[in-house]
Amino acid sequence: MTYNYDGLWKMLIDKKITKTEMRKDAGISTNVLAKMGKGESVSLESLAKICFAMGCGLDDIVKIETDNKIG
């Protein structure tokens, strides 16, 4: 399973906000931001903080991709 944060990166570019500015506004650690940069999972609490700071929903910033097909 991989986590795709391209929606967040695009939103930052569109709003002309740096990752560091977003990190400080959301109150998340540099470690969380680094994990997101590698496409790793982060806590729901961290994602909620980002959504609150950016004024968006979870589906705007992260997509969960899996290789498994059900059915």
How is this structure best summarized?
Helix content is 56%, strand content 8%.
Verbal overview:
The chain has five helices and two strands; from the N terminus they run βαααααβ. Strands 1-2 form a two-stranded antiparallel sheet. The two termini are 17 Å apart. 11% of the residues are buried. Helix 2 (19-26) packs across helix 4 (44-54). It is mainly α and 71 residues long.
SSE order, one letter for each helix or strand: EHHHHHE
What share of the residues lie within helices? Answer: 55-70%
Helical segment tally? 5
Shape: globular
Radius of gyration over alpha carbons?
A: 12 Å
Structural class: mainly alpha
Strand content: 5-15%
Strand order of the largest sheet: 1-2
Characterize the largest beta sheet: strand count, sense, and whether it forms a barrel: 2 strands, antiparallel
Tally of extended strands? 2
